[in-house]
Please model this.
Amino acid sequence: MRLAWMTDLHLNFVTPADRRHFMEAARDQADAFAISGDIAESHDIVDTLAEIEAAWQKPVYFVLGNHDFYRGSIRTTRRAVTEEAATSAFLTYLTAAGVVELSSQTALVGHDGWADARLGDYQASDVILNDYLLIEELYKWDEGFELDKPALRQVLHELGDAAARHFERVIEEAAARYTSVIAVTHVPPFKQAAWYDGRQSDDNYLPHFACKAVGDAMRRVMEANPQSQLLVLCGHTHGRGEVQIAENLRVVTGGAEYTRPEIQEIISVE
Ligand SMILES: [Fe+2]
Ligand SMILES: [Fe+2]
Model:
């Protein structure tokens, strides 16, 4: 089967005509789709997923990215999307799912992930993502004026840790039964995978562009399962790149341009 991987579609920035054109062009190129987050925003993510499902009528496995929570909260958006997927014939929200079998040899797992402020230099970083203004749980400002970095760091750590616990469990289960595991996540789980403009993100951006907790979990589980191969598909930094972290652990980061949604890769699953 052919699995088309996409990332950072940001369909809320795409005109209705261009969205239709993109979806029609993509439909026949694959038997199933994987999307690694940043699909729309909190207020239109459920409608956008319904639009994707109606257009493709094929399995769509996805996670959410930070933008998918903009102008809303992580908790309520995840809940709404989980409910939408639960009643849908084609949508699978991997963050709320377990191990998905794609073939007798290949399994798919996933989680949103989150940049967990543990790589690079969080304390010195002057990067203020819109996340910290537009997502309820991350709005940590002292009297509305200064970013409360310790409070924000605490939330970022918790989000990264929750993602890592999920991955530890599902990759362990998948690697024990399948020789090939594909993991979909929004945020690059290693600093070497946080590609930006053809190179690795610097210490100023890394706290916001990579998830150390998830990377550590992936490395641990794959070290214990040398018989299995893990391919990680991620996005978030919008810079295309690939890196081999270990003999059985490869990470591909998708390139993306606002208003130009595209297929990153068609993966043939055996
Ligand atoms: Fe994005
Ligand atoms: Fe993102």
